[in-house]
Amino acid sequence: MNETYQEYINRVAQLTLPGTCSSQLQTIQTSPKFIDGKVVPFPGYSVITPPNKDDADNQKFYSQIQLIQQSIIQQLEPGFVIPLTPESFHFTIADLVWDHSYQQAVQENPQFETQLREQINQSFQQYQTTTNDRNPIQWQLLGITIRPRAIVACLAPKDQASYQTILDLRRCIYQNAGLIALGIEQQYDFTAHITLGYFGPINASLNRSEVCVIISQISDRLLEGEPTLITVKRGELRKFDDMLNYHRQPDWAAISF
């Protein structure tokens, strides 16, 4: 599941095309992370960049993401997409454990969370001992992508070094024997993105063709003018209670690039 730089670019570029959007809209589902438009518990852990509210270095980027989100919501049927709060926007570096898997793990092993935090710290230390690269890590907004239960802003690395840095850190995480013993594993291909919202109830009368046109037009506009870039300066272990609230303690693992 670890693609080369060019393989990643080719795959992600396909995700923003109108034809892909059209086919993905045929199989969308209501997200269980929200009920009646309100967020519900969905606990777990991820390695992410600091959320928008804690990321002073990327305010211009997140302001642009918010404008895109507003444009989408305004043009689509009310309630079709449940928007995330702009304060919670973030770049996920590595998903770790969530929902039922998380709940089962902490029930079976009272030390699970402590061990998880220790092993992520080990992964970060391993990464730092194996790389001397200190080039800026930048990813640019490529377009809007439809996922089975969400709508996201898709990101592409500005250069090969930016991609390789994230890939190397993910390898240090997912190939950590201590994390594997805790049941942590890579479950799908990495697609860098910012989640904009999750799908609410899907009406039988939903005009999918119209939705696709709206999404494609917004994606096309993103390719005009200067690239919209996020600079990844820090990765943090964060616990989430739901899809809006990501928090951490000061002594939890973090890594600066």
Automatic annotation (TrEMBL):
UniProt cross-references to Gene3D superfamilies, sorted A to Z: Cyclic phosphodiesterase
Full protein name: DUF1868 domain-containing protein
Organism superkingdom: Bacteria
Protein's organism: Hyella patelloides LEGE 07179
SUPFAM superfamilies: LigT-like (SSF55144)
